[in-house]
Amino acid sequence: MAYIIKNGMVEHNGVFLEAEHLFKLGRISANSDGVEVGLVISKRPAQIHFKFETEPAPNFVLFFRGKPLDKEQTHSLVKYGYFISDGKRVHFVSSRINEHLAIAFGDLPLPKLMRLLRSLHLEALIDEFPAHLIEMLRDNQKKQAHHEKLFVQSLYPYQEEGVNWLSFCAENGVGTILADDMGLGKTAQVIALCCDVLEKNPNSKILIVVPNPLLDNWVREFQFFAPSIVPYLHYGKHRRGVASAFDEHNVVVTPYTTMSSDITMFEDMYFDLALFDEASMLKNPKSSRSLSARRLNVGVTVAMSGTPVENSLMDAWALTDLVFEGFLGAQDSFKSRYVHSDLSETLNKNLEELESSLRQITLRRMKKDVLEQLPEKLDIHTAVSMGEVEKAQYESLIDEMQRDNQNGGGGILPLINKLQQFTAHPALIDPTIPNDVRSLIKHSAKFELLMIQLDKIVQAGEKVIIFATFQKAIDLIQGAIRERYGILPGVIDGRTPNDERQPLIDTFSSSKGFDVLLLHPRTAGMGLNITAATNVIHYCRQWNPALEEQATARAWRNGQKFIVNVYYMYYAGTIEEKIDERIRLKQQLSERVVSVTDDKETDKQIMLEYLETLGL
Questions:
Q1: Could you give the dihedral angle defined by the CA atoms of residues 327, 331, 334 and 338, in that order, rounded to the nearest 10 degrees?
Q2: Are 475 and 520 in contact (CB under 8 A)?
Q3: Fewer Cβ atoms within 10 Å of its own Cβ: the N or the C terminal residue of the chain?
Q4: Which candidate, 522, 514, 525, places its Cα nearest to that of 489?
Q5: Are 96 and 207 contained in the same domain?
């Protein structure tokens, strides 16, 4: 018998045979712990039957008429495009299928399986991306995260599910994107993942890359969630070589800037796990930090981003390709398929397909999805790390205070006020600093963090009220928001006439989507109803917790139908951290004894206590 393959058809003795006349095969199916789900290859004379076994890794098996192909048959199929069954040749007429089989033959780790199935789907060799296959494998390996020994805090049920999901992916070598909504505790989940990795292998090495302002905050988060894990902070001019630091530490925390500048050292090391916080900073695949991130030698990569797609679908490609290289194909083919498609029907179908693929490596829960598990108000305290120049300037102010005290000067409290102005922004005491956004970010790590947080709120289309103590700080923030986002926030402080305040709130409340209202805590911290805001940012901290509680109550009050995120920003190791500590202590006392009063004498007493810590 002479079989000739032409244009995807099989010719026998001059007659083209239709697929159904050539042979009939069963459906594609996956069998995992006795559960079978089927798929069908579209319009092809040959169909593949999959069988997956989860231990030790998913295994790829070919079946013909319900019988598995042996090793010789499979090799023959891969090499020649046919195999022998009952003394007859059975041909595969798709050379592309043969190419895929060559990749897939033998044990098939989960990442290769996912690439194979996605590639088969994109080439119309299977009708739909078999998302349920991956989900089925995950379901069969639930509850595999082990972090109880190192992780000392409790997680919400949805966070436990997230840790199990991350653990499954890490165990199988699959990079992931943790894209939970703002305030749902991505940091807690990835620290639990670190604990899981270290409990399974105490010699594991973990790299965490973060924006500069969040360095100290990550150290504090480990102290809270997993105090026995002491990260090494690789940052600044006095940093040690990473290799020597790893002799003492399993976890290294470094900023994006340092990762890029030290990449020749980092790329010589192997990391079992790499975490990228605020991973939207890597959305430009051609940027120096993105290129550096891709040079790292990593087992599993996890990107953390509440806004995985900010401006374009290319953001999704960039993050996905970082954590799972090649999963969405080459950049150009991705553009042509999802970004530059002209036919709306085709584009919608493609986007549905993309969404199905992304769900396999992206975990995204919104607050509304886990509403019953959450409190009505989420307090998020962030310790901000000063840049080296900023820190030197702050220490210079401390030296000035000490000299003034030694000389018998009476200006200590004004200098305390100067410290608070500086922590709001150095521009409050240095008029030479330009007021454009780039300059303001350059000179203040806390201002940079504020812009990062506002970027997320913009992406979510939510409203935010920002409390700041100093009028100049309010003006700087207002100007920066106007430049960066194209809106002019309303301001309510001592300069705002009484008859203009409610109209500003009404305008803010009735506007659609993202909007900002800037408030002074003493002027606008009481009596106002601003439940349209679901985010509150305390940019300048108050000595007395009553002021902050009253200010927060502008949004978190009767009539609020949504969860409110309350962000507290303070500089680590400065007067602001002292304020934060005192506020938390006084809040604990107030819950046990009496409510805290808004008393300026109390504020003054706390200030004097802080001076004692400085030796003044």
A1: 130
A2: no
A3: N
A4: 514
A5: no
Among 481, 543, 483, smallest CA distance to 508 is for: 481
- What pLDDT, in 10s, does the model give residues 434-481? 999 999 999 999 999 999 999 999 988 999 999 999 999 999 999 999
Final residue belonging to a domain, choices 100, 126, 152: 126
Domain final residue, candidates 348, 373, 398: 373
Residues 149 and 115 in one domain: no
Q: d(Cα 521, Cα 471) in Å, to the nearest integer?
A: 11
Spacing of C-alpha 28 from chain mean position: 36
Is 472:491 a contact under the CB 8 Å cutoff? no
222 and 249, same domain (yes or no): yes
Q: Which residues of 3-19 are buried (b: 16+ CB within 10 A; e: fewer)?
A: beeeeeebeeeeeebeb
pLDDT mean over 357-368 = 86
Q: Are residues 93 and 193 in the same domain?
A: no
CA distance 568 to 541: 8
Full DSSP string of 159-205? HHHHHHHHHHHHHTT--EEE-PPTTS-HHHHHHHHHHHHHHH-TT--
Q: Is 108 exposed, middle or buried (0-12, 13-18, 19+ CB in 10 A)?
A: buried
Phi, psi of 84 (to 5 degrees): -100, 125
Asked, for residue 551, whether it belongs to a domain, the answer is: yes
117 — pLDDT class (breaks 50, 70, 90): low
Mean pLDDT of the chain: 77
The token pair at 349 is: 């179908």
Does residue 133 lie within any of the structural domains? Answer: no
Question: Residue type for 377, please?
Answer: K
CA atoms of 560 and 580, how far apart (whole Å): 26
Pick the more confident residue, 132 or 174: 174
Domain of residue 384, residue span: 377-613
CB 210 within 8 A of CB 255: yes
Q: What share of the chain is helix, strand, coil (3-state, %, to 5)?
A: 45, 15, 35
Say whether 146 sits in a helix, a strand or coil. coil
For residues 615 and 376, what is the distance between their CA atoms, to the nearest angstrom? 42
Of the candidates 70, 124, 71, 73, the residue with the CA atom closest to the CA atom of residue 97:
124
CB-based contacts of 128, cutoff 8 Å, min separation 6: 39, 121, 353, 356
- Count of the separate structural domains present in the chain: 3
Distance (Å, whole) CA 49 – CA 222: 47
Virtual CA dihedral for 59, 60, 62, 63, nearest 10 degrees?
50
SS3 387: coil
- 149: helix, coil or strand? coil
Gap between the Cα atoms of 491 and 437, Å rounded:
19
pTM of whole model > 0.90?
Answer: no
Question: Is residue 178 assigned to a domain?
Answer: yes
| β-pair type (377-384, 564-571) | parallel
Q: Buried b / exposed e across 410-443, counting CB within 10 Å, b at 16+?
A: eebeebbebbbbbbbbbbbeeeebeeebeebbbb
Tokens 């985010």 belong to which residue?
A: 535
Say whether pLDDT at 250 is over 70.
yes
Q: Is 253 exposed, middle or buried (0-12, 13-18, 19+ CB in 10 A)?
A: buried
